[in-house]
Amino acid sequence: MGGYEIAGPSGPPSALERYLFEAAGVPKPRVCFLATASGDAPDFIARFYAICEVLPCIPTHLSLFHDRDVEDLDAFFDVTDVVYVAGGNTASMLAVWRAHGLDRVLAERAAARDFVVGGASAGGMCWFDAGFTMSFGPLTPLHDGLSWFAGSFCPHAQQPGRLDAYAAVIRDGSLAPGWALDDGTALHLVNGALSRVITAADGARVYTVDIDGAHEHDCEHI
Fold first, then answer.
1. Domains of the chain, with CATH numbers?
2. What residues are labeled active site?
3. Is 0.90 topped by the overall pTM?
């Protein structure tokens, strides 16, 4: 997701969250929420459990900034259907995941069976080779994504100047070509290949961006 189609995240579940949970294809998926990018902010975690009172699922979360309450990450994620990653500082999140070995655990689960991952902003960017982020202060390339998906990713493309700045770093070779998503839109990739480009907000756009600039992509409204 480039970002939520609702203000926040706050309030009721967004259509994109509902779509993410339903992608597991089971009546009550076991969903693990990772708020690492926010430093495991309590309000993010509380909001997750609030929306799970509406969406059919078995909610869990994993906090890595506090005393870790899960000893065996492999066993924990063996019974997880959906990993839902919240926004925040992508660079810090990836460093913490790697320190705990979570990057390996998630990759091995995905290689072995059906396994849904997703999220908004940092939670969308982290799965790509690279991204365009404010993790270091000003907008700048991030080159050490998890590389589940090829290319680069830029969230919040509707923010003034952000799409132009992303296109500029691709044009000068600082980033590989990739995707720029407005809030309220998302990419659905299956086994590394694009399956659907979706929007849950009127007027929200998705772009492919290469050395020739930004090119608007057709979206399917959900």
1. 15-221 (3.40.50.880)
2. 121, 156
3. yes
